[in-house]
Amino acid sequence: MDLMDAIKTRRSIRRYKQVPVPEAILKEVLNAARLAPSADNAQPWKFVAVRDEETKLRLAAASNGQKFIAQAPVVVVACGIPEEAFPTVGGYMSSHVIDVAIALDHLTLAAHSCGLGTCWIASFKEEKVREILNVPEDVRVIALTPLGYPDEVPERTPRKNLEELVVYDRYQ
Amino acid sequence: MDLMDAIKTRRSIRRYKQVPVPEAILKEVLNAARLAPSADNAQPWKFVAVRDEETKLRLAAASNGQKFIAQAPVVVVACGIPEEAFPTVGGYMSSHVIDVAIALDHLTLAAHSCGLGTCWIASFKEEKVREILNVPEDVRVIALTPLGYPDEVPERTPRKNLEELVVYDRYQ
Fold first, then answer.
1. Under a CB-based contact definition with an 8 Å cutoff, are residues A12 and A37 in contact?
2. Domain A3-165 carries which CATH code?
3. How many beta-carbon pairs under 8 angstroms link A with B?
4. pTM of whole model > 0.95?
């Protein structure tokens, strides 16, 4: 799929077909995350691909009851590793959040180009996800996404006009 | 350009031709950022496109002296607005860092598909960038990138194997 078409037609998918994701396609999509750039090329990330039904249901519950998450055949949990990351982006923050977001963005675009749907999940309880997946204390959970074949074609959601978000030469 | 080709062939570009970026192409690349998803579709971002020579030189100095940044005809400074963002990703952090990283990832991929180069800049002093661009105190500077036609073809940088970053069903 053409890159700009992928960016323009990707949607957040909240209904999934009960069809498994072939192993080769799952690998292709994860590979897109693998190729992402990261500060100092540290790659401070780990992706947990969850296919176990019981675990998916628990992750949906940990995501403040967003049940559609467990409907997808795969749930990807994107984790960042601060101690492996560039520590001072802008002089004030660890790069692991940015790095993981870039990688997961690659994954969501690649998924769409393979005919798969995703949905960035921000509303979850890290402590519950940590407990369910056995995530170590020094690793942060950054985002989740279901991954599977869409069973809906959502409308485009609105965006600000370019003039509202782009300024030239100075913040104004 | 095909999406997976874009992901596979994008490189961090640190040498730029002294050729301006046409206005229509700059808009197209910024539009890719505009279309990015964000938590609750809040779009808590602002992009400063800097073409003024003196300002670019000051931004390069604020980026710990990475002079190549000013060589590019445009420098994009990606800012996040915490007070407009989803406040509790995972129950513990504002979404603005993730949101801006997704949008800037869209921009870097779109740039590459238009024949332009970019380079994620993490090493900068936020306070200096804030002063140069007049960024308000309640807005955070997340990343910068030069934007212009590449004057180099860098080798691919190494990545971990998929087995090192993907685990199944549990963190292990």
1. no
2. 3.40.109.10
3. 232
4. yes
